[in-house]
Amino acid sequence: MKKSLTIIDTFGFLFRAYYALPSYLKSKKGFPTNMLTGFTRFISSLNSEYKTDLLLFALDSKGENFRKEIDSSYKQNRVEIPEDLLKQLGVAIDWIDKMGFKKLSINGYEADDIVASIAKVASKEGYLVKIVSHDKDLYQLIDDEKIVMIDPIKKSVIDENGCFEKYGVKPSQFCDYQALIGDSADNIAGVKGIGPKNAQKLITDFGSIEKIYENINLIKPDRIRNLLIDGKESAFLSKKLVSLKADLFEHVDFSEFSLPNLHPILSIANELMEYDIKDVLEQVKKDGFLLNVHEEIKVTKSSFEAIAIVDETKLFNVINSISKDTIVAFDTETNSLDTKEAKIVGFSFAYDDKKAYYVPINHNYLGVGEQISEDVAKKAIEKLLEYKIVGHNLKFDFSLLKNLFGHSKKDNFIDTMILSWLINPESKHSLDFLMQKYFDYEMKSFKSVVGKSSDFSQVSIDEAT
Prior knowledge:
Blueprint: E1 4-9, H1 10-20, H2 34-44, H3 46-49, E2 54-58, H4 66-70, H5 83-98, E3 102-104, H6 111-124, E4 128-132, E5 147-151, E6 156-158, H7 160-167, H8 174-181, H9 196-206, H10 209-214, H11 222-230, H12 232-242, H13 269-274, H14 278-287, E7 305-308, H15 312-320, E8 327-334, E9 344-350, E10 355-360, H16 374-384, E11 388-391, H17 394-405, E12 413-415, H18 416-423, H19 431-439, H20 446-450, H21 461-464
Parallel strand pairs: 1-2, 1-4, 2-3, 4-5, 7-10, 8-11, 11-12
Antiparallel strand pairs: 5-6, 8-9, 9-10
């Protein structure tokens, strides 16, 4: 069975999602969420309704594209984007990154050109390409057994027969068909006076624009022939405008389009809750993409060695030994629960079940030993955040790092507090409870570690480790 690549016509899809759902969908704070809801519902259904091996989001580039050089009036009649749509658009594009998907745009070209070029290379390499879009401009790419269109609203596949049933022409003839009828949405003129019915007949009889004009004297009635003669320049210009560029890539590394290991919705779960888009989270929980919550979970006894690192060379030797796709557990210790005022005391990380590392930075008590400086710690944390991160209540850690070091992690992370909520919203979600439940491991409580100390900075490094 062929492996499949799904390509999303991103802006077209998001625009349709905006208009498909009612405008009254808003968060409790009044932020519009109809487009975001439609988008995340699509993502949540990828596994069940859109079986695919690879996924790519194709985007239009900012600024002018090469078609404007061919015709300055191209897309000149586009109406202004609604404010509520614009508000959500930036969030949705940001979520694509956070969910771990690949997105692609190229200066001077439209998303359709990227779709065409990627589809061409992918189909040659044996992939079945599925294009998710409502844009009829992409019908020219349909090639049965190689490239099909997917209607995300009707959830139907559009193949060569589907194209012919709708327009009366083959996908290979679609550019010529469009060149005759034009496209008002993109301000492409076509041939004035030639509508879909006459265009379909002309293409059926002659096959292409070139053949039509080679046989112009054979065309009846006279009115149609005269319209074609008068509109010849516009017909060929229109064909240039509607023809997609399919030669932007000679080679493509399709491994970059691989799906995230964990369900992508989990990476934005905290933001979905902030925007009150909770039905999508409920669907993820119901489908059990992370684990089957109806099955008994096997408890595994946990045992590991805790190691304090106070030497810069050793710290970076350990971090640099971590392989590229490893999931790294990460946590910070501070002297306050207010991230705007807190000072980082230390951080811990682990990447296997044998060893865990604690890095002291700002412990402050009589007789305190060597520690890692904040400058070194910043570089080490930046390096760690390049990996896939798992942690508990990461919103706190990332907010702290943002305030202290000016950077945080935007994608490829999973928060176990959110996962716990997804499994059972009514249960406890503290880390010590979850460790006891799933790993039969009894953590030292924060209170027992800190004791009578004013904050974590006064806890000994040995005790903190």
